[in-house]
## 1
Amino acid sequence: MSKGNGDGKVYVGNVDVAAKKARKLLLGKLKLGKLVDWGTAFSLWPVHLTTSCCGCEFAAAWSPRYDNEQHGALPWVGSRQTNMILIEGTVTRKMACALRVVWEQMPQPKFAIAMGACALDGGIFYNSYNIVRPWEVVPVDIYIPGCPPRPEAVARAIIELQRKIRREGLASKFVEEGWRPDKEYVKPKEDLCAWWKG
Ligand code: SF4
């Protein structure tokens, strides 16, 4: 919409629509989207959240011998500065609350890798009363089989996630559209923190 005044024209309109058009121009025609995806793929910072014994292999994966920092993945302490979560094995009902809280604190675009047979489908605790499946708590991008998976498998999962981000443009799609079209928003069916509230 435009309004005329004595000295010329003043353009007013919907700022959200204008911002969306600008984002599309920058990410589409100018190919900045590829830069966003490339930068995100090599800046995967997993948060420290050890849910179970697979955590030992997570630690080994960043030891000098396996050195996952060479892939641009650097474990970080504060969830608000991270963009990846590695679910390390079994997720008990109590840890599911912590997992969800940490996931919601992380800024977008964010990614999840589930590690170990327990994270796939319960593993040796498959029929236990106190286990929840990770995909019921957060949307999982990559699964790593094994009990426990070796550090090389963790490195492979990170490389696969990097390929997925760049191939499917996951980071740039988020910047453009404000959500991840390939992932439905996972909303836990139950109140995971009910035990904590008493
Ligand atoms: S997959 Fe094996 S090592 Fe990992 S949490 Fe389960 S029992 Fe532990």
## 2
Amino acid sequence: MAQAQKITPRAQDYSAWYNDVIMQAELADYSPVRGCMVIRPNGYGIWELMQRALDDMFKATGHQNAYFPLFIPMSFLAKEAEHVEGFAKEVALVTHTRLKATGKAGAGAVMVDPTSALEEPLVVRPTSETIIYAMFAKWIQSYRDLPLLLNQWCNVVRWELRTRLFLRTTEFLWQEGHTAHVDEADAERETRTILGLYRRFAEEWLAMPVITGVKTDGEKFAGALRTYAIEALMQDNKALQAGTSHNLGQNFAKAFNVQYQTAAGGLEHVWNTSWGVTTRLIGALIMTHSDDNGLICPPRLAPLQVVIVPIWKTDEEKKAVLEVGEGVKGDLARAGIRVQLDARDTVKPGAKYFEWEARGVPLRLEIGPRDVAQGQAMAARRTGGKTPVKLDALAATVSTALAEIQALLLARATERRDQHSVRGVTKEQLLALMKGDGGFAYGGYCGSAECEAQIKEQTGATVRVLPDPEFRSKEPSKTCVWCAKPSVAEAVWAQAY
Ligand SMILES: [Zn+2]
């Protein structure tokens, strides 16, 4: 009967656990289209809260939303050489515009109309740099038009062979910011501002600690000058890239001829940035906090923050507890808390507890006849612990509890991340760590692509970032962990999603 029994424990099979948590919480489901997922209301509710928070942050930093076409002429993708190489192997193409009836029955009832072939095939956007910068070329004439700070919320398609719910799917939802600036300094400032914004969102909303830093040339975005990222450590000690911010330099401006007249009257190419986070963040949320009983959702991103479970035996008791339950629901809702009263009489309270736990609701209020008599409810936190709370001034008590749960989740995740971060690793330690428990390995790096490739081949670990100063070790290694030549930067290695 217990829902929780249907969830495979993490220690037994981590990836089965991950899928079970998603299925039990009804966050998503597999679709009839291979590699594409359906995001169910419980999962989409989390995405809506993420969108709202991020969108507010984008607007507060001067960005505006716009929308560009889903289709991109194939020739556009060819204009930036590195970019096309990065995406060519995973694009979906539209080549025809019509089907026609064959007169046959069943699956053969329609066929592609060969007379409807497009002169130029259209790419289903894998990312929108090309089509957006083609428009920027039209809109930007003068330095007065800069900076241009746009964002788009949309779906993209990257034809993936191996997919996992939320983490890697052929179609996914995201936001992509695209900006144009007068010079490199301003573009770099923007790239950094967004990286900081993503970090703040990860910590304050997802309750997920991240390391920020720059990617190596081998790991940067196809067509970028520099890529910065936020990196988090999941419970299986694999890293997850949770957001990226790219300084694109003038690569796309030159490919799409985006020029502006300077104040002095000259003509210059603009400097671009692009940045994005995706529905992968829901996967990050699940894997950062959840346990063997199911989803644990940070209160700020929980579509349902409080569930009230009334307990009764007799009709008289039922009337009394439901009346109090309704009152509590009203009080909390008026205080802006997302709350539901589970008045179903076909499900026993114990089964309700399991169900709401699996769905990650941060706080459960149980109200029985004795509680009603004492003017209280029992508050059970999804993170553990159950205490009586007075019904007077309950909204304030609940708000405090939710804030405490939010803070506890960040503290727990930070502690776990730090426990699995090893600083100043030797080659032997790096090999042993990646063969064993995994985690973040900090070590010296000579900067060569060869060392990077060999480490990847022999340990499965990649350089996640060359960390920003605040994340660096107090005394970083002076030699490369792999070749023992002088280190040019400290690096963080991990196996990654
Ligand atoms: Zn080296």
